[in-house]
Amino acid sequence: MTDISRRGALGLLGGAAALPMLGSPAFANTKVTVGALNFTSHAASFVAFERGYFAEAGLDVEFKFFQAAQPMAVAIASGDADYAVTSITGGLISLAEKGATKVIGGALTEEKGIDGQKILVSDAAYQAGVTTPKALDGKKFGITQAGSSFHYMGAKIAQAEGIALEFTPLQKVGAVIGALKSGQIDAWSIVPHIAKPLAGSGAVHIIGNVADYIPNYQVTTVFTSANNAANERAKTEAFLKAFSKGAADFNAALVDKTTGEADAEDMIKLIHKYVYADKPYDKAKPGIVNGAMRINEGAALNTTSVQDQLDWFKSEGLVKDSVTMDMLVDSSYVQTM
């Protein structure tokens, strides 16, 4: 994990959609730890940090970076992180059932007309004739852990195609990438800022789109501890307000492209501090641009998609049948979509 902190950041003015129920925080310089992955899909938090929206809201933010979604959920439950953005996993749902975590908003979403997550296969599988998702029958599909979003996506693809997949847990995204490139696994699904550069290298091939199998998929959510949701309302509302401003800036610059080329370039440079930071800017830029999927305005949540995910986890025996949406989601914060 890597920690990054900006204390006393200057608040900057920015046009953004604000959550209607949120007011000004009654505190200043409150320390908050935000869990994230080094993905373009986490850009709303990065923008809110770099453009001073968190500081403007009275939040002194420190990032903790993780390699997978489920450890992030554990960190929220244990108090090692205050807020985070990640996919719905079996771990997150189980922690919510135990009264430890709450989903408080939506983030990344699959949207018709916006290039989204891709289905990838290794070059070895592709050369052997696996050129469509239907041809994945009996093949090894990489996941981080059982009950991860990768597991959910692979299962929905298999169900739609009437095929069987062998799910291979590899714990970390980096390990999945290595296994796919070396042919140790046959397939995977991932956000486009990772998928497209991998495909461009020739080591893997894109054979389909996740949106064709899971339309309007709520890929990631904003969540926090049940304690923060119940007892730290002003802080939680301030976080959501700043996060939403960051999302609005990101969408305008790179998804809707309404603010001009100069702003888009500034946005890519900002994100580059967190995504592909080990690469020169000109090498990192295409991957960042490719990852520009919609982040929900106002942190709105597609509850229909969340319910579908919850139902799937139950059907697979990965969470208890008794878990309800009310256990998982604190609807007092949520705008639905």
Automatic annotation (TrEMBL):
Top-level taxonomic group: Bacteria
Pfam family, one: NMT1
Keywords in alphabetical order: Signal
Key word Ribonucleoprotein present: no
UniProt entry tagged with the keyword Signal: yes
GO biological process: one example: alkanesulfonate transmembrane transport
Entry protein name: NitT/TauT family transport system substrate-binding protein
Organism listed in the record: Thalassovita litoralis
